[in-house]
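BUG-366 | component: ligand-complex export | severity: low

The export step for uridine-diphosphate-N-acetylglucosamine jobs runs without errors, but we want the raw record kept on the ticket for reference. Input record follows.
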Amino acid sequence: MNRPPTVLSVVGARPNFMKLAPVARALAARAARHIVVHTGQHYDPEMSEAFFRDLDLPRPDHALDVGSGSHAQQTATIMERFEPVCLAEAPDIVLVYGDVNSTVAAALVAAKLGIPVGHVEAGLRSRDRSMPEELNRIVTDQLADLLFAPSRDAIENLCREGVPPQRVHFVGNVMIDSLIMALPEARALDMARRHGLARRGYTLITLHRPANVDDPDTLCELLQTLALLAGHDAVLFPVHPRTRARIGRLNGSGIVDGVRLMEPLPYLEMLGLVADAGLVITDSGGLQEETTWLGVPCVTVRPNTERPITCTAGTNRLAAPRRAAIQQAAAAARAERPAAAPIIERWDGCTGERIAAVLCDARRFE
Ligand code: UD1
């Protein structure tokens, strides 16, 4: 029998943490040695610690404390600080998650040290190279030895880019594992009632992409649109630190009348609010998938998505960051709310287990 491998997982930003949790659980069940490195890309307690608590994640074995910076600074600092950890731990494989700067930085370090790289959430493509995440995805997938794809479109993208098919594993969506596991606890929090709202009686917002929040004119138009929406429905907006900083620079022209601005929410509270929302308006990748699985109408304020299955099979629709486009999409999304949540292939709560099974079959990457 093969000995269980030593797996080293690298996480750093909020959307990584819910992808790590199911893999950590499945590896623990197989008695694999699992080392967790937190780069510190996200460091505010509500962007990091709160997620470790809600997801019952083990404390990271190594904290690189890189903090914020330009893309080059952040990526370079992660690489510099991760290399000695990688050398000291000498793992059998380095696992990276999603598409953030921590993902590509760690993949580069491991690949150059000759350590096999596994990419969880491989193959997603928006075909929009102006997004930093798209560059991170393309580079990481080229470096990876094991590519864990969430959907068939992701496999097709990898195939088109010449990735050998034996490296690709159709494991499903790992974030949905976390959602399925946490949903009963999230629902028990009764978040809508806590906010004095009826089920489906509110719209939930998240916006943080540079393309939406860094340009003051675009951000102003978005905030004015939210204020209009708040005229006929309660609007809740947990604000990402990047967005909070940009709203602060608007010198009072950030009109948000009637919109409830909140601090970023911990995982369970956010999931509780998403599950009962009448509508979600977002530019997040994860929320497009979570709303699809839950059957909650979603408007994604972006010109494209790397998760097309959420539009073709799910509840998602795209809208430009313009008032009319968002209002129109919001009305259509509400009107076409599905009676039952769609079923997406392998978004079934077993993805962490499938990944661990591949990892523990050491022959696949020796
Ligand atoms: C990053 C990811 C993005 C992901 C998002 C989720 C990249 C390129 N982008 O974007 O794909 O959707 O995380 O949140 O990796 N800040 C704080 N506290 C924190 C973290 C950040 O105040 O804990 C502020 C800093 O001013 C920082 C800014 O937010 O400069 C942006 O943080 P950064 O990690 O660079 O990118 P995100 O916008 O969070």
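Assignee comment: Attached the raw record above. The mean pLDDT is 95.
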